[in-house]
Write a structure and sequence with these properties.
The chain is an alpha+beta fold. It has six helices and five strands.
Length: 214
């Protein structure tokens, strides 16, 4: 039997050897881990579509001391982002959310609040059927920066953006005040948060230009 079974979000996969994948994933109980999924790139892989980015899965894996990579055994799909992929804007937002999570989360450091943040944002996007891209992006960015420990006092933005930030830090995403959300809504706040994020990672985020071009 596998040593551990954890609810997880898939963050990113990398090709490895001929048919394997390196998988970066966020568990509810152990934080961000990386592991090897043997034969995951083969057509009849037992992992199926469970390793798509931001899939929520129940992941079984073996973990040994002094080993950086765990060995993935199987995954049971809880929720797939597949139905959201038909909307290009939502797809870019999902890429952005996965990339920010991958870079901000420290390895093997439990962070259940970040896990719950991802779950809440994915719930919101699926309930809104792709119409809630901008509140989801802004809510995720604000909370990701806060949970990572480097959110400053919001001073250098306009009054509307400061009001939105205050609301988002006190209100669940599904209960946000109705607004005419667009790319321009709280754009100054979003830019400042992304700039702050990029100051704390090794390289610039690939998805930000795509997001700003929507």
């Amino acid at each position: 039997m596998p040593a551990r079974v954890s609810e997880s979000f898939i963050l990113r996969t990398y090709p490895f050897r001929e048919a394997d994948l390196i998988v970066s994933f966020l568990t509810r109980d152990q934080g961000k881990l990386r592991g090897v999924a043997r034969r995951a790139r083969r057509p009849k892989s037992s992992f199926g579509a469970g390793l798509e980015r931001l899939s929520q899965v129940r992941l079984a894996y073996f973990q040994q001391e002094n080993r950086e990579l765990v060995r993935l055994d199987s995954c049971e799909l809880i929720r797939s982002p597949f139905e959201l992929q038909s909307d290009y804007a939502v797809g870019v937002a999902l890429d952005y959310i996965a990339e920010v999570s991958e870079h901000l989360l420290a390895p093997a450091e439990a962070n259940e609040r970040f896990y719950r943040l991802l779950a809440a944002v994915m719930d919101y996007l699926q309930q809104e059927k792709g119409r809630g891209v901008w509140p989801a992006v802004l809510y995720f960015t604000l909370w990701a920066v806060r949970l990572s420990g480097f959110l400053p006092e919001i001073k250098k933005v306009d009054s509307e953006s400061a009001e939105i930030a205050s609301e988002m830090l006190k209100t669940p995403i599904g209960q946000l005040k109705p607004r005419s959300w667009s790319r321009q809504t709280a754009a100054a706040l979003r830019r400042s948060l992304v700039e702050l994020t990029e100051n704390h990672i090794e390289r610039r985020l690939v998805t930000v230009p795509m997001l700003e071009a929507l």
